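Fold in tokens:
===
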Amino acid sequence: MREVMYWQAINEAMCEEMERDPNVMLMGEDVGFFGGAMRVSRDMYQKFGAKRVMDTPLAETAIIGAALGAALTGLRPIAEIMFVDFTTVCFDQIVNQAAKVRYMLGGQVDVPLVIRTQGSAGKSYAAQHSQSFEMLFAHFPGLKVVMPATPYDAKGLLKSAIRENNPIVFIEHGALYNTKGLIPEDEYTIPIGKADIKREGRDVTIVAHARCALQALEAAERLKAESGIEAEVVDLRTIAPLDEETVFESVCRTGRLVCYEEGHKNIGVGAEVSARVVENCFDYLDAPIVRVAAMDIPIPCAKELEREMLPNVDKLMSAVRGLFGDVQMPGNAVNVVTAR
């Protein structure tokens, strides 16, 4: 095992897949000579050349349109959109074209397209550069949505995504790029659609993804030290398809569920997880399901306001304690889905 940063794991995954398969290419704004807006593709232009690491105009519709055409004609493009917020510009290309073309042509074509982007808050990037759109894309059949929390997951999932014959929206969290983690020396992949139990526990299940999975681990350790509560942390890793089996098994063991996410509370990932658990595991619940998420307001630029509207470890811990009799957080930060 060796320690790498999150961005390095993504860079390695792309380089290894480009070395393995000459049809793999990267395209997007500033991904070439400059090395990417977040410097994730640094040195790739020098290594693979301008035909395989291609700088594009500042035009998201052109990036996804060209990448889709490349995928349909035999290449395996990785298309980078600088911020997930900007995918609204090319929404038609993603949800009406890439997601549906294989179905509409009766399975006669493959669509090996990876759309890499970052979705993150907490960096004072304001309302148009800080949003979480994972649930938006998960709504559309034909798209797979991946959100890794660690360098290990980022590399293994991206390699699997590049080898897929279906379009995948691969969302990286901008606040994680410089975080560190261990990865194997040897090649490995992680199956898409499989959640990971990052921490075992007997008292409550916390379902999270991306940076929230790491925050959930911190909350779990603090809860154990302060209250003796043993929380199990399930990192979804893939939002679509959702690994119901792992979530259901965990909830049936613990009897309690807290859904924790950085996206807005309204119709979020936690809402979907809650609905599925109530539909399938109702008799195993010993307490109401709790959702902890961002407030339903545009994301502020001011650090103090942004910090207030986002979920955090303290809010999560308070929500968990509430399941065991303590006072819960105010309703604008925590929402309860009554199970009984």
